Amino acid sequence: MSNSGLFISFEGIDGSGKSTQVMRLADHLRDQGHDVVLTREPGGSDGAEEIRALVLQGDPDRWSAETEILLFTAARRDHLERLIRPALAAGKIVICDRFADSTRMYQGLSRGDLRGTVDTLHDLMIGVEPDVTILIDMDPVEGLKRAKGRQGTEERFEDFGADLQAAMRAGFLDLAAQFSDRFRVIDGAQAMDAVTADIRTAVAQALTARH
Ligand code: TYD
To answer: Taking the model in full, what pTM does it have?
Structure first.
């Protein structure tokens, strides 16, 4: 096996079924004998998990959009330094539930057009993209129903409503077209097992290409 590792991210609107699929993929790859690190953003390292509580809990107006970009990027930088880079260097498969594309969409779109700011800060402080990004594409009305069905304290972004979720869905599909080399768009409206199967196929291709 090559020692270069493989960096996989998952993206999609809230309630796209992403978290279940992330776990299924990790289990599947482990069953195949791969060394898998399963992680998430915001979070994934001690410092980044502390930032997670700051950005996901509390009043929706708690932070300005710009401050939020700084906080998400700070969390990502810590995650990258302490977990992602060392794991990839050791040849592991890193599966990350959300990465920089989420900042491009959530912070870049939700309160005016801040995409340029997100990208500038990303270039300066992060500078890497996943090898493969699995986008679970999903009808926002369905997604919102699912997201609202979950009780929890991390609701700042889930309160955005259907219009913003629709803009986000379109934005993710635009990103997939822009970064078509790494994005794989999966139809999230299918039965869960069919979604799982499509994801396995996409990742198997990426693993073959790596060798
Ligand atoms: P997550 O825990 O993945 O929630 P879900 O399972 O509903 O997808 O993400 C938490 C929230 O954080 C989600 O609403 C998206 C938001 N988020 C951003 O706004 N910017 C970011 O850069 C990231 C990584 C997440």
So the answer is: 0.93
Give the tokens for residue 55. Answer: 């950005």
Angle subtended by helix axes 65-79 and 115-125, to nearest 10: 30
At position 142, the amino acid (one-letter code) is E
Compute, in angstroms, the gap from residue 14 CA to the centroid of ligand 1: 7
- Cβ(41) – ligand 1 distance below 6 Å: yes
DSSP result, 27-45? HHHHHTT--EEEEESS-SS
Domains of the chain from N-terminus onward: 6-210 (3.40.50.300)
pLDDT bracket for residue 187 (50, 70, 90):
very high
Digit-coded pLDDT (tens) for 147-185: 667 767 666 666 667 788 899 999 999 999 999 999 999
In whole angstroms, give the CA distance from residue 170 to residue 201: 24
